[in-house]
Amino acid sequence: MMRLAGLAMSALFLTTAALAQQADQPALKGAAAFGDWRADRPGVRRLIKPEDLPKPYATKSASNGAGIVDMPANAKPRLPSGFSAELIASGIDNPRVVRVAPNGDLFVADSEANQIRVYRLTKDSAKPAENGIFAGGLNQPYGIAFYPLGNDPQWVYVANSDSIVRFAYRNGDLKASGDPQTIVDNIPANHHWTRDIAFSPDGKTLYLSVGSGSNVAEDMGKRPRGGLDAWGKSKPLGASWGSEAGRAEVRAFDPDGKNGRVVATGLRNCSGMTVQPATGAPWCVVNERDALGDNVPAEYATSVREGAFYGWPWYYIGNNEDPRHKGERPDLAGKADIPDVLMQAHSAPLNIAFYDGKSFPPEYRGDAFVTLHGSWNRGNRTGYKIVRLLFKDGKPTGEYEDFMTGFVASNGEVWGRPVGVAVAGDGSLIVSEDGNGTIWRVTYSGGRS
């Protein structure tokens, strides 16, 4: 792994008001929205529409992964004026999803270490007063949820790559008091392994995201056993089969894991899921397919509509047919839903959190934050940042705005790869990144936003 030396580089990452774009500047549209990391800065807005996407293979498919370097001394991400970031923790093996317990403790999925970590913050400092391993011996844990909803949960649910388990819990527990209870098993686990979970506002439904087992169903086969007509009549719209059976879906269960059903299909890899407070609707951020070129197809965030089909693997972003599956599913033409917010291709969105706190400026309330882990299949690097999705009256405008940038050190190196995002009880924003294994707390102290 390449390592960056020299303290001078740290100046590149300091938060400065000069970097913030005024909020009333127009969004970048069309081809102008397809920039790279060099154009990123807090306040830059983009609006990508389905008709803006270029044709497949307009550019060659790149293999352009970033080298991870040490975080420069005194480095901080760039934020809009009035915001600041404090380092909560570092040296974590693989911090992924972050969720906030009702009592304020931070639960962090340390996925490659197969454990859930917990951090308790003090009121006067971002540094944890206590921390520990809540549970170990898991299998690539990712999603975390507390149940029942409210101030006195009795369980912590954890989504492994192949199962959902739950631990008995009381407010303030820093370590699980007993063994896990398996709620859902036999989840297909190879390739895309990030399983997220969320409860509906009434607590009656547990949502689970299951990513695909491949890029674009290369080994699924062109026809299911029994033929397409029989399959289409007996399965949800757009359901896949063979090696992809039960994948690229959002599922739903009762809290005890029973009564499983499919909510929506065609979501290649919903790596992050939450429920929108204003509507109660589940939302996904989705990693779309690779190898069609630098700017196609768009990644996206979307509400997950009951019975909807989002295209994978035959179509993308509406009725755009994937050339690798040309003519295979004419029965699905025109039936793929268009997602709510399109983001630059290959940005790799991993998690989403709606802002329902009160410490940020009022215009942030009801918007959503999305972590972009960063590209590898793009000639010019994109992602490696946190963006803000803009909403009006509970509905997405389609625009998104750079919020937290500065994790890219050079054209070939990055020191941070954002993954988890959550809103703390005090209204601050908690962000994890797995490049250097750190967790940050973002607060607002005043001034222009």
What this model shows, in words?
The protein has 449 residues and is mainly beta. It has one domain (47-444): Neuraminidase. The chain has one helix spanning 228-234; strands at 28-29, 45-47, 67-68, 83-89, 95-100, 106-110, 115-121, 128-135, 144-147, 155-159, 164-168, 181-184, 197-199, 206-210, 249-253, 261-265, 270-275, 282-286, 299-303, 315-316, 320-321, 341-343, 349-354, 368-372, 385-392, 395-404, 408-410, 413-414, 418-423, 429-433, 438-444. The strands form 8 sheets. Strands 1-2-26-25-24-23 form a 6-stranded mixed β-sheet, with no helix packed on it. A 4-stranded antiparallel β-sheet has the order 4-31-30-29, with no helix packed on it. The chain has a 4-stranded antiparallel β-sheet with strand order 5-6-7-8, with no helix packed on it. The chain is globular. The two termini are 37 Å apart.
Summarize the structure.
This protein is mainly β. It has one helix and 31 strands. The chain has one domain (47-444): TolB, C-terminal domain (Neuraminidase, 6 Propeller), CATH 2.120.10.30.
